[in-house]
Design brief:
The complex is a heterodimer of chains A (387) and B (83). By secondary structure, chain A is α+β, with helices and mostly antiparallel strands. Chain A has helices at residues 118-127, 145-165, 168-185, 198-209, 219-233, 278-294, 299-303, 367-381; strands spanning 10-16, 23-24, 29-35, 38-43, 48-53, 60-62, 68-72, 91-93, 188-196, 239-242, 245-248, 254-256, 258-259, 265-266, 269-270, 297-298, 307-311, 330-334, 338-344, 347-361. Chain A contains 8 helices and 20 strands. Chain B has helices spanning 3-17, 32-36, 40-54, 69-79. The chains are: A alpha+beta (387), B mainly alpha (83). The interface between A and B is medium-sized, with 17 and 19 residues.
Chain lengths: 387, 83
């Protein structure tokens, strides 16, 4: 059971999307888990073959409990499973896999389609049951109506468990634990800067005029990209404080705070935000917001963020002084873009201005680095064509 | 296209981003985004949905004129393609 949040202690395995013998590729979704922050899709992190399922659907297990054993590619034995070959190294999902006996080799692709009667297939469709997740008990492991009914009952019961687990109380408890830990352990320092967005918004307006409504960009996309590029200049703010030491990360995965309509907040990761074009970022952010609200996030999105960006501009606040999401090192906040009096070159005018703030961990960085980051952020945000 | 069609399309688009909202309680001169707590990503999704449903391409410069239900109905009635 992977840790899907700073203070997650346990999760409930909802369903498996694979069976022993199935071949899996890095990034495949192989299971769903219910947590206090919603249902999360569990990804696999290497290519291989599912050797054994260790946790049955419906079981609530502590973080760190092995869920399944996956034998990775390159570690396969080339002899038939039943012969006494050397034991292949195996790795358990959750990285704590006990050695297990070798299972039969993966079934060929043609054999992977479940055998199912037309009546059972129709029932599965009516009940919204994914037939790939149903274990058949008929001849030759064919899926029968009774198997589908059983799967639907389990699914219904598990959904209830999941819904209870993800009610507002659970969500608030998860946020409370993470934020209390942050305030208890992280000595925050705060910096703020006001950024004139005249050139940025003018560029955006011209750019959006050329685009159909589906392709238009929002200012928040430019802000996220500017943060990612500024982290390239001040990488000390990107990463974690863990095991009592500063652990900057090379990859820039920006956690983008998404509020849920029923209350609560999740900041899933936009992977490699620095390498994405503005169009790719816009698409990624739209997808992430949609999946966050639909409860369809992936495990890596819950765990990989190396910094958080929160944008409360839509709600009219001028500046955000955030609480860092541990074990991250910093949180960048953006307020509302407002017309303000602005003095430049000895003249006062009215400009669209946003206040960007940085909350950073003083154990890892000092105000000097924080100030350099905000300066880099301002520079990048004011040069939108190079984002 | 009748005003009823337009109101239905708006209700459908808003219902998609704010499924818990009671749209019957939304008065026609209320700011939709404030009343239904709709952020800029969701508001763009509403406009995209209206574009797909009604065929009206809304330029970005017009967004600020579309704050209320009455604004939306008026704008879409004027700009909807004639059948």
């Amino acid at each position: 059971m992977p840790s899907l949040g700073a203070d997650m202690e346990a999760g409930t395995l909802l369903l498996w999307k694979v069976q022993p013998g199935d071949r899996v590729k890095r990034g495949d979704i192989i299971a769903e888990v219910a947590t206090d922050k919603g249902d999360i899709e569990i990804e696999v992190f290497e290519d291989g073959v599912v050797e054994q399922i260790l946790v049955e659907p419906g079981s609530k297990v502590p973080v760190g409990t092995p869920l399944a054993v996956i034998r990775s590619d390159g570690e396969q034995v080339s002899v038939p499973a039943e012969s006494a070959g050397p034991a292949a190294p195996q790795r358990a999902l959750s990285e704590m896999g006990p050695p297990t006996e070798l299972q039969p080799p993966p079934r060929p692709a043609a054999d992977r389609r479940p055998r199912i009667s037309p009546a059972a297939r129709k029932l599965a469709s009516d009940l919204g049951v994914d037939i790939d997740t149903v274990r058949g008990t008929g001849p030759g492991a064919a899926v029968q109506r009774a198997d589908v009914e059983r799967a639907a009952e389990t699914k219904g019961a598990l959904r209830e468990v999941s819904e209870r687990a993800t009610d507002r109380t659970g969500m608030r408890r998860a946020i409370a634990a993470a934020m209390a830990r942050s305030n208890r352990e992280i000595p925050h320092y705060y910096l703020a800067t006001s950024i004139d967005l005249s050139a940025t918004l003018s560029w955006l307006e011209t750019e959006n005029e050329k685009r159909s409504i589906r392709e238009r960009l929002l200012p928040a996309v430019l802000m996220v990209k500017a943060v990612a590029k500024a982290l390239g200049a001040v990488p000390e703010l990107n990463g974690y404080w863990s095991e009592d030491r500063h652990q900057p990360q090379e990859s820039i995965h920006i956690g983008f705070a998404v509020s849920l309509r029923e209350g609560g907040l999740i900041a899933p990761a936009i992977h490699h935000a620095d390498r994405k074009s503005l169009d790719e970022l816009m698409e990624a952010m739209r997808g992430l917001i949609e999946r966050t609200r639909a409860g369809r996030l992936r495990s890596s999105e819950m765990t990989d963020a190396t910094i958080t960006v929160t944008n409360l501009g839509d709600l009219g606040v001028e500046a955000v002084y955030g609480v860092i999401n541990p074990p991250q090192l910093a949180l960048v906040g953006f307020g509302k873009i407002t017309d303000r009096p602005w003095a430049e070159n000895g003249a006062v005018g009215v400009r669209p201005v946003v206040t960007a703030t940085l909350a950073a961990d003083h154990r890892a960085t000092d105000g000097r680095q924080g100030a350099q980051f905000l300066e880099a952020l301002k520079r990048h945000l004011q040069e939108p064509a190079s984002l | 296209m009748t005003e009823r069609d337009i109101r239905q399309a708006i209700a459908k688009a808003l219902g998609r981003v704010a499924p818990e909202a009671n749209l019957e309680e939304l008065s026609s001169d209320e700011n939709i985004r404030e009343a239904l707590d709709i952020d800029s990503f969701d508001y763009l999704n509403v406009l995209i949905a209206l574009n797909e449903e009604l065929g009206v391409e809304i330029p970005e410069k017009d967004y600020s004129r579309l704050a209320t239900l009455a604004d939306l109905v008026r704008y879409l009635s004027t700009h909807a393609p004639q059948q």
